[in-house]
Amino acid sequence: MTETQVSAEDFALIQQQVRSFIRTKVVPRETEIMREDRIPDDLRTAAAEMGLFGYAIPDEWGGLGLDLTQDVELAMEFGYTTLSLRSMFGTNNGIAGQVLVGFGTDEQKKRWLERIASGEVVASFALTEPGAGSNPAGLRTRATRDGDGWVIDGRKQYITNAPIADLFIVFARTAEPAAGNPGIAVFLVPATTPGVEVGPKDAKMGQEGAWTADVAFDQVRVPADALIGGDEGAGYKAAMTSLARGRVHIAALAVGTAQRALDESVAYAASTTQGSERIGDFQLVQAMLADQQAGVLAGRAMVRETARAYVTGEDRRIAPSATKLFCTEMVGRVADLAVQVHGGAGYMKEIPVERIYRDVRLLRLYEGTSEIQRLIVGGALVRRAVAAL
Ligand SMILES: Cc1cc2nc3c(=O)[nH]c(=O)nc-3n(C[C@H](O)[C@H](O)[C@H](O)COP(=O)(O)OP(=O)(O)OC[C@H]3O[C@@H](n4cnc5c(N)ncnc54)[C@H](O)[C@@H]3O)c2cc1C
């Protein structure tokens, strides 16, 4: 069982500071971020000063040391604005950082975590490849022993923060898959290592300001101590563990964005008229607001319960996937309704719900698609029932 490292009083202050930062400093600049496709430097600096590059990294390694029940509360705050802000420090705290926290040696943690937590180093999680997204066990990037070290060859795609990364957490095959061993290891590869090539940044549907790119590894030599945990067999488990935790965080982000879409919808319905009638007085518009509100309340309750059960160790598999599935589908419906409440205005750039509609589409795709979450949940339920027969 993981204990909460930060007291409720201290956490309340952190949450208040983050809420104020998001709502007074970031929300007013959403259009600028969207138009320029970048997070302004002063917002990055402010986020780093608040410890946001390391809120989920233990305090002994320079982070704020929040547990998952606290992480999701912050994620609901981050979800209230452009999701690209969260993406800037999301890989450091989440999928990339948690691999080091959970599976790194003390030496590796000492070398990297403090700089990751401060934002000096941006870490990227490089798992997905062409043909190996939903099924990462099929990845083809290879790491071959070379004296004491390793040589890595292969190509990754859609890697968040790759264009600004200092460190790649790279999953590579060291052996053919065998029963109980997918043959996947994970390595620490500094972006400046000869043979690492980051492609041009991808042109995406939404989340302007958050960048992804392909990363090619061509005869990339790394020393023996680049192997995370010094354990060739740790890679697949490290990826799955980090992703399961990340799913609860993504679900919380979805709830935060759904709340924003609801607030925008209510404000619009209350202030806009057709003829002499307020659109919020139309019962069919009220019905849309009610469905949005119900989704937000259900999602928030589910996220909090799932984070609690994750921290106690009661459920780190079924609930994270079920919660990501529910909340990311929920925010898709809520965002769609938000556009509907806004009528034609909802289709116009620079109206927040237009951006939200595009931004949240990604949540159903990465860190496991909705189909993969269904397979995880359904498969685990049936396996458990069969085992009890
Ligand atoms: C903006 C963005 C950022 C990303 N960031 C990262 C990152 O930082 N690091 C990283 O490693 N990856 C990252 N990804 C990759 C992401 O996790 C994958 O795109 C995702 O897991 C889906 O894999 P895929 O694209 O190969 O699609 P596919 O797996 O080919 O899926 C295509 C369709 O087939 C369905 N499908 C696949 N397998 C099954 C099955 N067994 N049963 C039923 N249906 C199935 C899927 O649900 C989907 O509908 C990112 C992707 C995007 C778009």
Short description:
The chain has 389 residues and is an alpha+beta fold.
Give an overview of the whole structure.
- This protein is α+β, with helices and mostly antiparallel strands and 389 residues long.
- It has three domains: 8-118, Acyl-CoA dehydrogenase/oxidase, N-terminal domain (Butyryl-Coa Dehydrogenase, subunit A, domain 1); 123-233, Butyryl-CoA Dehydrogenase, subunit A, domain 2 (Beta Barrel); 237-387, Butyryl-CoA Dehydrogenase, subunit A, domain 3, CATH 1.20.140.10.
- It contains twelve helices and nine strands.
- It has helices at residues 8-26, 30-36, 41-49, 68-78, 83-93, 95-103, 106-118, 235-271, 283-312, 318-342, 352-359, 370-387; strands spanning 123-126, 142-146, 149-160, 167-173, 184-190, 196-198, 212-222, 273-274, 277-278.
- The strands form three sheets. Strands 2-3-7-6 form a four-stranded antiparallel β-sheet, with no helix packed on it. A three-stranded mixed β-sheet has the order 1-4-5.
- It is globular.
- The protein starts with 7 loop residues before the first helix and ends with a helix.
- The mean pLDDT is 96.
- Flavin-adenine dinucleotide binds next to strand 1, strand 3 and helix 12.
Layout of helices and strands:
Layout: H1 8-26, H2 30-36, H3 41-49, H4 68-78, H5 83-93, H6 95-103, H7 106-118, E1 123-126, E2 142-146, E3 149-160, E4 167-173, E5 184-190, E6 196-198, E7 212-222, H8 235-271, E8 273-274, E9 277-278, H9 283-312, H10 318-342, H11 352-359, H12 370-387
Parallel strand pairs: 1-4
Antiparallel strand pairs: 2-3, 3-7, 4-5, 6-7, 8-9
Helix pairs in contact: 1-4, 4-8, 4-9, 5-6, 6-8, 8-9, 8-10, 9-10, 10-11, 10-12
Flavin-adenine dinucleotide binds next to strand 1, strand 3 and helix 12.
